[in-house]
Amino acid sequence: MAWLIILLLLSLRLTRAEFPEISNKSKPDLEEGLLHLLLRLRQEEFFDTLLIYGKDCVFHQLTKSLELSTVLVSSGSTNFDWNFSSLTLILSCRLEAEKEMTYRTLMKLQRNRHLIYINKDIQAKSVCDLYAKKEQHNIAFVKKDFIQSKIITACRCFQEPNFQEVSLQESYPIYIENFHDIHRQPLRIMTDLVAPRSMVYQDPKTGQTKMIGYVANLINNFAHKINASLEVKSLSSNESFRNIIKWIKADQIDMAMTLEASVHATNFDTASYPYVLTSYCLMLPVPAKVPYNLVYAVIVDHLVLGILVLLFVVLSLLLIYSKNMSWQGLSLADVLLNDVSLRGILGQSFPFPSNPSKQLRLIFIILCFASVMLTTMYEAYLQSFFTHPPSEAYIRSFEDINEFHQMIAITTFKMNELNNINNRHFKTISKDNLKIFENWHDYLDLRNAFNRSYGYLVTEDRWNTYAEQQKNFKDTLFYFSKDLCFSRLLFLNIPLRRHLPYRHLFEEHMLRQHEVGLVSFWKSRSFFDMVRLDITTLEDLSRPKPYEPSLLLLDVSWIMKLYLAAMVVSIVCFILEILSKGREWGFWKYIKDFVGN
Length: 597
Ligand SMILES: *[C@@H]1O[C@H](CO)[C@@H](O)[C@H](O)[C@H]1NC(C)=O
Ligand SMILES: *[C@@H]1O[C@H](CO)[C@@H](O)[C@H](O)[C@H]1NC(C)=O
Ligand SMILES: *[C@@H]1O[C@H](CO)[C@@H](O)[C@H](O)[C@H]1NC(C)=O
Ligand SMILES: *[C@@H]1O[C@H](CO)[C@@H](O)[C@H](O)[C@H]1NC(C)=O
Ligand SMILES: *[C@@H]1O[C@H](CO)[C@@H](O)[C@H](O)[C@H]1NC(C)=O
Prior knowledge:
Number of helices: 22
Keywords: Cell membrane, Glycoprotein, Membrane, Receptor, Signal, Transmembrane, Transmembrane helix
Distance between the termini: 126 Å
Membrane topology: Multi-pass membrane protein
Transmembrane segments: 294-321, 362-381, 558-579
Bound molecules: 2-acetamido-2-deoxy-beta-D-glucopyranose
Structural class: alpha/beta
Signal peptide: 1-17
Oligomer: single chain
Number of domains: 5
Subcellular location: Cell membrane
């Protein structure tokens, strides 16, 4: 920056030094006049580079006195895209000295100030028409009689006549922003009517068709700002989003009232500055509740059961040892079928020996404590799970999708896009788990209906309205999986025609709307706008049952059956015991006496 200022001061000094030597020859006179003009232009808007089109003219001599970096294009075209500073003033030695073909250079020619030296006698109107046809509007020119007349002619759009003559002595600006008011010129718009970005409705008062939504509002406000009229066409249902991009690329429409992701773009010629930053993830159906009859299985976890058995064995061993303070009489049956320990752990009463030793008392305390903890824990689990059963497992990774056979709905367009950018997450999903929709309307209909047969791809932005809608449901149907994102940093931009002359105004407008918080305000209102326009309903799509099924005896029947089986086994054991040991115990004699009496 510092050397630029020094250069500027240097050139100012040079000019001042040169002015006194008023030469008699016409050529140096012209040079001085133009130098003066360039310095004035530089004061109006800074430039640090000169781009000179054409051969051998008065501008070439000026570069010596200005000492700026200069690009000379005598042939009229450069075969590379504009890759020098944007702070460039373009000078042409004659009409149409530039014959540029590359897009980006043409875009820059549109924006940068352009001064032409015209040697012939030609009507100002036709010069401006010529450049207006090329959509270059920042044009001014001087004629060879400049030194006598001191007149600069600047082209003006949307005015009659379409040029203005500015004298070098006047302080009136030579270049102006032509597009602050485009006098109701049409802005050709195409909309895909994807809620909540753009939605159509009829104004109840005037009967006019209007657009609303956070993209539509942006464009409406812009049209209002530059005094443009809107010419909106909407995509018919059999056309795809690709058509919009095709028309934009073919310069058939000026702007699209939609958002395009720029992940797969090779260049950004038809894209605006990013409007929305979002992520692109999966919304998946919330897993179903565990049925009541499986709640028992849920609370008996393998690990916990293992720990309980271990505790039981340890307590049995301690009980046996502390009875006599020796391992005498230790047997496997005593350890595994220790009735004191078993009853203790299950929270039942058990015999408490009279005069127990200190150690034994301590172990009984541990046993009682364990029994209280275990029974209350299981009681609490069981009762809370019976009132509110837990969900089945959630999908946490892309591999889980294949494992759980979760179907994912997708449109052909999105699938090709994800394949083209070689998305590694997308590749992990097996083709069998994809349901491909040719028509994106079918896809949107399913997603909007919260159809739980599939998981869906959704931007976080759109998800927010679904989340809002779900708040009215009795049961949550979908969840937004932040772990399952195809892209976490997705820039969405508004497709614009390549040579839109007011692109810079639009982008500035976009940033302003963000700055004052309008965009987030519109987004937060999206869902209510959708409800107001009947695009979505407040209806509960979770289809709640009129009554929740209560816990039935049937649900715990297998517990009962287990209980019954255990009873039968113990009765059989008892009978077998009586049959084999009955004589020893004098059981039969007792029965005989009893019956005999
Ligand atoms: C300019 O040249 C003319 C003749 O060509 C001469 O009469 C006149 O005095 C000159 N003027 C100056 C300022 O030198
Ligand atoms: C400009 O771009 C062209 C290719 O597009 C390249 O050959 C050239 O070196 C670049 N010039 C500068 C100054 O970067
Ligand atoms: C918008 O353009 C129309 C048509 O040229 C013009 O009459 C009107 O004054 C303009 N509005 C504003 C606010 O400049
Ligand atoms: C869409 O339908 C219209 C008639 O409704 C038809 O004219 C047009 O050709 C169709 N476009 C495509 C791409 O099928
Ligand atoms: C969800 O979609 C599937 C397949 O498209 C369909 O068979 C099913 O009836 C839909 N479910 C609901 C609740 O509409």
